[in-house]
Design brief:
By secondary structure, the protein is of the alpha/beta class. It is built from nine helices and eight strands. It starts with a strand and ends with a helix. The chain binds 2-phosphoglycolic acid.
Length: 224
């Protein structure tokens, strides 16, 4: 199974989200090959919009098999007097996945390994699957996490995507537990996706910039 994860980051607005969803659903409905692959479990799509837009999409995608919602982060806290936090408990029936430890969070919000660990614990308490992002060998691997994303910081758009060969080399260096789903992220788009799909070592893709355009995102999925 190949994973295609859309990470919108802090972009889009409610009107754009409504338009994106409409275009995505319309286009996807006519893509027989993708629909079949979703049905057979050959591919899985996870859309991670900003928190406020989750409910704008939820109903629209609910009839598709193997399309799920995720978040780009989650609180390290359970519930309580933590003003502004969005917790796993709040989202347990809304999302299936949560991206944790993205390099932008580690960088701009000083997220420590301790915090990342607490966030993973929260996802597990509320049966949300964590998608842990690693910048490289310096970041901790949590044996309980089944989905690991390798995102070299310099490859993130507008950086330059890392060559598939190098991605596979890093996978070996990380010596992940067997059964780990290994995702690559960093400037994946409709022009370079085929080169990554040639290798069996990569189980999926975290797509930022190119996922903002639903047609481009579908083109990427369609390459599988
Ligand atoms: P990008 O983002 O595809 O825009 O490089 C990937 C990510 O950072 O998740």
């Amino acid at each position: 199974m190949k994973y295609f994860i859309a990470n919108w980051k802090a972009r889009m607005d409610s009107e754009k989200t409504i338009a994106w969803t409409k275009e995505f659903v319309n286009k996807l409905s006519s893509e027989e090959k993708i629909i079949n692959k979703l049905h057979n479990g050959e591919i899985r799509i996870i859309i991670c919009p900003p928190f406020p837009f989750l409910y704008l999409m939820k109903d629209k995608i609910k009839n598709f098999k193997n399309i799920f919602l995720g978040t780009q982060d989650i609180s390290a806290f359970d519930e309580g007097t933590y003003t502004g936090e969005v917790t796993a408990k709040m989202l347990q029936n809304v999302i299936s996945y949560a991206i944790i430890g993205h390099s932008e969070r580690r960088h701009y919000f000083n997220e420590s390994e301790e915090l990342v660990g607490k966030k993973i614990t929260q996802t597990q308490l509320y049966r949300i699957k964590p998608i842990l992002c690693l910048r490289g060998v310096q970041d901790k691997i949590y044996p309980a996490v089944k989905i690991i994303t390798y995102e070299p910081v310099g490859a993130i758009w507008p950086g330059k995507n890392e060559e598939p060969k190098k991605v596979v080399e890093m996978k070996k260096k990380l010596s992940l537990p067997t059964q780990t789903i290994f995702i690559y992220g960093g400037s994946v788009d409709e022009t370079n996706i085929a080169s990554y799909l040639e290798t069996k070592e990569i189980d999926g893709f975290l797509v930022g910039n190119a996922s903002l355009n639903p047609i481009k995102f579908i083109q990427i999925v369609n390459a599988a």
